[in-house]
């Protein structure tokens, strides 16, 4: 399998992991000449270019889109139209119109679209999936997720206040897929309505937001993302699943403990009447019999699945409609925020 990488800040990291699992990186692309030179040093045989359109005729089986957050749709549509499989990072689209264009392109293409949402497949979310699938929690009633960074006010302002950087261009609600996608995957539902609330005092652009989302199965989802003090810095993610019979949640802790999950099953719901509470630790994720760094596990899982999709026809782990649905939560959330946190319908991409 031969792939190209567009966007070499995050993309070079993904290229190195792709190479580790046996995928051939034959092209690299970035508008930044220094990043391009750094990638050439790692992949000297790869074609290097500052112009992504040149990769359309580069003999690729697939392409990884790791360019700016808000600039994926046009590229994904162009590659799909050429029959090149797409693995796209973070946001699938930034508007309903883009989302529907992407769905149409993916569903008419001979190639496939996969969403590179690695937080769905990190160790703690995989453990939560096992707990949900076992049925031990009972019917799921509420799910929550955080994706938060603890930066100084100065560093936060510099990051989200720079109009030349994509973080300065996007709405405060936009970067929501690291929280929303794991919850959609765990419930098997899709978003119906969202209300967005700013966190913090003053200013036109809050550093963090809370989204309250009603899902299609009436589960309530509560997500928080952005910049708030006090996070451990382990992997910035916390996920919780509350069922009728118990709770499973990732552990708020520093270091490797943050990948573990606490499960509590209420005694009144157990045959023996005994409350059960335990900490579950994820096993290693192996590539060529060697464990992968915990923070890389979700990305490796996504890349391995992309290879299976291209080479074996395996369905994408996260196909186009769930990718668009998660991204449109941020779009509808921005409308809610602008209107004073009123509930806003999320466009239905499953109809």
UniProtKB/TrEMBL annotation:
Alphabetically ordered keywords of this record: Oxidoreductase
UniProt KW Ribonucleoprotein keyword: no
Domain named Gfo/Idh/MocA-like oxidoreductase N-terminal: residues: 1-114
Organism: Nocardia testacea
Name this protein carries in UniProt: Gfo/Idh/MocA family protein
Pfam families per record: GFO_IDH_MocA, GFO_IDH_MocA_C3
SUPFAM superfamilies reported for this sequence: Glyceraldehyde-3-phosphate dehydrogenase-like, C-terminal domain, NAD(P)-binding Rossmann-fold domains
Domain GFO/IDH/MocA-like oxidoreductase stretches: 126-243
PANTHER family tied to this protein: BCDNA.GH03377 (PTHR43818)
């Amino acid at each position: 399998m031969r792939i190209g990488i567009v966007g070499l800040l995050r993309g070079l990291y993904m290229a190195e992991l792709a190479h580790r699992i046996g995928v051939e990186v034959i092209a690299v692309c970035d508008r930044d000449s220094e990043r391009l030179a750094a990638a050439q040093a790692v992949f000297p045989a790869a074609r290097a270019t500052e112009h992504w359109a040149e990769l359309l005729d580069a003999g690729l089986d697939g392409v990884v889109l790791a360019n700016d957050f808000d600039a994926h749709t046009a590229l994904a549509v162009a590659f799909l139209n050429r029959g090149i499989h797409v693995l796209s990072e973070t946001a699938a689209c930034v508007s309903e119109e883009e989302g529907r264009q992407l769905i149409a392109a993916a569903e008419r293409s001979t190639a496939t679209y996969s969403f590179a949402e690695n937080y769905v497949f990190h160790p703690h979310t995989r453990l939560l999936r096992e707990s949900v699938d076992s049925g031990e929690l009972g019917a799921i009633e509420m799910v929550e997720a955080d994706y938060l960074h603890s930066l100084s006010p100065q560093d936060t302002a510099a990051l989200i206040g720079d109009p030349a950087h994509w973080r300065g261009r996007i709405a405060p609600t936009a970067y929501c897929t690291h929280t929303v996608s794991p919850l959609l995957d765990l419930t098997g539902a899709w978003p119906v309505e969202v209300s967005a609330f700013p966190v913090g005092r003053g200013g036109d652009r809050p550093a963090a937001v809370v989204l309250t989302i009603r899902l299609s199965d009436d589960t309530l989802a509560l997500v928080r993302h952005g910049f708030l003090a006090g996070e451990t810095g382990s992997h910035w993610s916390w996920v919780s699943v509350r069922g009728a019979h118990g709770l499973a949640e990732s552990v708020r802790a520093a270091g490797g403990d943050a990948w573990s999950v606490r499960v509590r099953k209420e005694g009144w719901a157990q045959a023996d009447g005994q409350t059960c509470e335990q900490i579950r630790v994820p096993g290693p994720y192996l590539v060529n019999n060697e464990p992968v760094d915990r923070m890389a596990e979700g990305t490796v899982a996504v890349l391995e699945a992309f290879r299976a999709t291209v080479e074996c026809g395996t369905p994408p782990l996260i196909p186009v409609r769930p990718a668009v649905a998660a991204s449109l939560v941020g779009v509808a959330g921005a409308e809610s925020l602008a209107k004073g946190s009123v509930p806003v319908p999320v466009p239905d991409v499953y109809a």
